[in-house]
User: What shape does this take?
Amino acid sequence: MTPAPLSVIGHWTSVIRHSAPRRGRLLAVLLACLVGTVAPALAEPSAPPLPVLPAQASFSEPGYHVWCGAPIAGDDGRYHLLYSRWPAAATFAPGWALRSEIAHAVADTPLGPYRPTGVVLPARGLNPATGEKFWDADVAHNPNVLRLPDGRFALFYTGNHGDGTSFATHRNHQRIGVALAARPEGPWTRLDHPVLDVGPRPEDFDSLCVTNPAAAVAPDGSILLLYKAVTQEAGKPLGGRVRHGVARATRVEGPYEKLATDVFAGEGADNKTWMLVEDPFIWWDAHDRTWHGLGRDVAGRYTGDRGAIARFVSTDGLRWRPAARPLFVPGAYPLAAGGRSTARLERPALLFVADRPAVFFGAANGYAPPPGLSYNVQFPLAPVSP
Assistant: This one.
């Protein structure tokens, strides 16, 4: 079978974008047939689709830094985006650690345009039962959303509290929580405690803070949670090594049992690197019965491209390895207006339509000097052969 020309792929990508959700799903199947032989076979059972470059859409909000981006399809036939935002005046950093809140946007098609509807996890101050601040009193960040087997939606996030001025205090108070809702737009009900806390011993790999939750439903209905952690280190207020761990719970509310440490740690000289991977996103693929993941290749260890989005696979969700073809999105990706992006891409996430990956979401332009603002970009996915 001869691969479809790029002009045909581009045509059908446009049609899918502007189609009603149900019709768009049917057209997505047609697109899969058109381009099914573009790429060579992989060593693992199957590969997720690859992004069509350049970026086809973006989402921003005037007056705010927009970061993260957790997309999900709703029962209403629309597509929902949970994202972090904070005032531009707070600057990108330390603003994300001091002022971030989680907001919601909605679209009629997978590629948008997404329309902001309001904040769903704002600052919440004091716990009336104790008179003290909630663990997530001041900040909600790093949204990661999934559908539970019982039909509810679960929003994992990072929360913190502090004095409103100290970056180190807020950053080091990061813990992982979950909120639950019947619909992606909420209302969301939070727990009064984190579902994942730091390790109890100073030498634990996650003794200082835990953040960047990446959760997915396992085939047995349990919740697998991959997370980023920082260890305490004497003389360093922000701690030492940044590594990842895996925890599991039979119920989304917990308790979570920590099962793996030093995920993506590397070996030999690599193990001395401060951080190899950041911002994981994971999912279980029932079609090939394999765990798949995305993450930012911080040091270029896996793709040879520093800052690229890399692909990982796992048979058990605990031990991860780079995919046979690890590069998912290059560190400098092409822009629709021409040239290549110089703003690093972070916080990868996928929108699934009919249980298959359909659109890649990524946060861009972080740490840009004022008046630059961060935003979210979206790439449609082109299927590849298994």
About this structure: The mean pLDDT is 87. The radius of gyration is 20 Å.
